[in-house]
């Protein structure tokens, strides 16, 4: 939102990203099949914006986040961070990139090393990158702890002395202390109670406003994604099926899967009676995804063409991309 | 005959856990009742005691936990007075339960069919042939596709949604009078959750079982329950019919809970939050347990525990404001 | 709030210490009473076996031909001068002195206490050296194997399997015919055969821990593999290895005894706790119980101490441990 000229408008561009996990079997541990966790996903994020990624388990949203940060090696595609290809960066370039791209994890219990005081966990990045003297690092840790709403004296405590919400704040502090440009938030609130979830969401919002951060916000909870995102991408079985601005997507979803997803959410208002679209069956296995449109076995609009032809991910309306033969508003 | 209308009635139930660190007052004085055929939703955040309540009813508290006070009347009988033997006859038979993680509740080395048949043979004394037939009926009832073939599947061969259907079939196997569903859809994806909730609604009409639905998801409660009990830190803070509750929540905690939930299609710039955290149940504070986080706190709140106050329209609220 | 304000202030005052958790670890260890007591007992034992023999009136192999199999407390008048290690040199005890076998004497009239002290030197040295070295090697190979997986893991684990199929005793017999058996060689060989258990344990722990999100978090911060392995993984995976080490210690003492029987351990007449126990049979157990009891007691006390210290260390290294 702060800087925007034509060349650096997109902070992150992901092009045709693929990740296949091999399934090894047999005596020689040969690859017998592949889980197509990500099968050609493209999107971009502008500076200062929040892109939400939603989808059910196995849709590839978490894999997207991890691959973008090169925490797992991709099978194909490009990830451009400020024009630089992250996936081809050398070890030296990667060190610089790591400072700019950080991640906040889902599980506040597993994402902090239980044997290390939290101050040290937060300072680890600074230490790895040789930023500042120990004294300066200490001050930075204290500052960032205050910034995320904790007390600077908390730095000597261990993770088990904190509640889930506090730990998530520590996880955010660990990312924040590196002064990154992009933070991948991988289900940052789904392990938290509602009242704590609201606190953390507000904190993320405030930080974005104050520091001009860019978020890739991954979640399965549509309401949360709607709340925090500027644009939203919906994923299904390793593909992006719909991508649009938040308002457009939630007011006028075009992909049948998006519609079903939205209607499936129970609303905390007993007076609303909706015509619910209930999808039949389960999400198919990503090892052997359906031919044609991957959603066709569960889709109530499916025709013959859907079984054979994979629909292109097209801009049906300005800024509204959909992959469906029968997309309609 | 108002008496027999009430299926389950808890009176002053206190369940404590005796741990190395001290006594956890997990449930601290709980009264509520469930009528036959009613669906009661219990909502609250983690640690509020909602799951411990269900475990207390079934007396499955493990070694460290104990119901130290109160009575749990089920169909006129205090469950706390029963022997372990008698209790076993009630569990899975007259009161059954479904859990959050369906896949971990099925024994991985037995076929699905075998597990349901076993339950039927133990509790209802059916012969192998009868049990087999009934199992197919049940699996058809819960909408499992191709039940005859599915019976021969092992738990790892079915998805989470299907496993939850199997758990529901198992729970319904003996026509229980009370079904306790502890976060039945929390581990499932939204589209699968919609399927399961739909199934539960359908079954409720078919078999007329009373249901205690325990969840943290206000949306699920709004959709499923007739009456709702909101729990906080081991106590019930509000009890109301579902419409009344969402229309006008009375307790500050309920208000905060509803306001802090992001709602689809209703974007707000800033979510309301409840400041602070749930108090430790090792040393629960005196007075109202929500006082430290409450915007309406008065002097009285930190000194004296508010009673459950009766409001019009069958509502109860534990707050000095009323 | 569980933490009082004064505690918070105390923490605030010393907050720069957050990078030095050793004090905390020491504090937690000191709360483990048995572990602390064990450290004291072991320390006393080590001092005793190191310096004790210097003050003993007998040498390690001095025999009192007339006083075989004497019970503890038997008195003995030395008939002739005793020298250091009974081979000339300075006089240790002059003829005519009355001495006491405080722990009795063995089958050829040697003072049991003296031999116990000499034996302790070599037994403790071998046991500690073998255990520490093999755990160290096991941990390093285990963490590398578990962390990198794939071909590294396959190779390392097949090698572990291979070592485990090798029969220890025949191989030692062969080696002892080729090489001159010394204590240090013995240690090396025992280490070579005994690091595999520790490696397996460590690998198993690493396999589950490496999927933890704090590992990913650290990687996202740009941490090197070495840092992830030894800063994040090993400390979290150490507990089973510590317990394993404390149990392995007494095992090493027994193995050493078996080996000396085959001419590869500590060779008689030099004493080790293992070979003092070795000759024990039913007659000795019934008639001369002390000959078996005291070396056995020494091994028992040592392994008990190491077990307690292992427990204490495990808890001390875990900030979650209460009490």
TrEMBL record, chain A:
NCBIfam families: oligo_HPY, PRK11308.1. Residues 12-262 form the ABC transporter domain. GO terms for molecular function: ATP binding; ATP hydrolysis activity. This is Peptide ABC transporter substrate-binding protein. It holds the Pfam family ABC_tran. InterPro entries: AAA+_ATPase, ABC_transp_ATP-bind, ABC_transporter-like_ATP-bd, ABC_transporter-like_CS, Oligopep_ABC_C, P-loop_NTPase. Keywords: ATP-binding, Nucleotide-binding, Transport. The lineage of its organism: Bacteria, Bacillati, Chloroflexota, Chloroflexia, Herpetosiphonales. GO terms for biological process: peptide transport; transmembrane transport. Belongs to the ABC transporter superfamily. It comes from Herpetosiphon geysericola.
TrEMBL record, chain C:
Residues 120-310 form the ABC transmembrane type-1 domain. GO terms for cellular component: plasma membrane. SUPFAM superfamilies: MetI-like. Signal peptide: none annotated. The keyword ATP-binding does not apply. It is found in: Cell membrane. PROSITE patterns: ABC_TM1. Keywords: Cell membrane, Membrane, Transmembrane, Transmembrane helix, Transport. The keyword Transmembrane helix applies. InterPro entries: BP-dependent_transpt_permease (IPR050366), MetI-like (IPR000515), MetI-like_sf (IPR035906), OppC_N (IPR025966). It is a multi-pass membrane protein. PANTHER family: ABC TRANSPORTER, OLIGOPEPTIDE TRANSPORT SYSTEM PERMEASE PROTEIN APPC. Belongs to the binding-protein-dependent transport system permease family. This is ABC transmembrane type-1 domain-containing protein.
